[in-house]
Amino acid sequence: MIETQEPVADTVASLSAATLANVFDQSVDCVKLIGLDHKLQWMNANGLCAMEIPDFTCVRDSPWQALWPDGVRERVQASYAPA
Q1: Which of 31, 55, 72, 82 could cysteine-pair with 44, CB 3.0–4.6 Å?
Q2: How far is residue 11's CA from residue 17's CA, in Å, rounded to a whole number?
Q3: Which residues have a Cβ under 8 Å from the Cβ of 32 and sit 6 or more positions away?
Q4: Host H or E run for residue 8
């Protein structure tokens, strides 16, 4: 008999914030967690390096669109409602 696996969302939801941070920190990509208020909650070390941000506290709780170039910030902000 083949066992069914838990849905990924259930597995992820059961992980602690520290465990998730450790998993995301292993990514070579720039990973950001953005709250429902559109503000930055967390960014992995590679993201900080790629964006040349020395310390996450410099950008914590700032609007996500603030990290985008001036020419696209309005489009980024307009994408929040549909998302």
Answers
A1: 31
A2: 13
A3: 40, 42, 43, 44, 47, 64
A4: helix 8-13
Distance CA 66, CA 2 (A): 48
Digit-coded pLDDT (tens) for 11-64: 777 878 788 788 888 889 999 989 889 999 999 999 999 999 999 999 999 999
Residue by residue, DSSP assigns 21-46 as: HHHHHT-SS--EEE-TTSBEEEE-HH
Task: Give the three-state DSSP class for 81.
Answer: coil
Say what the pTM is.
Answer: 0.71
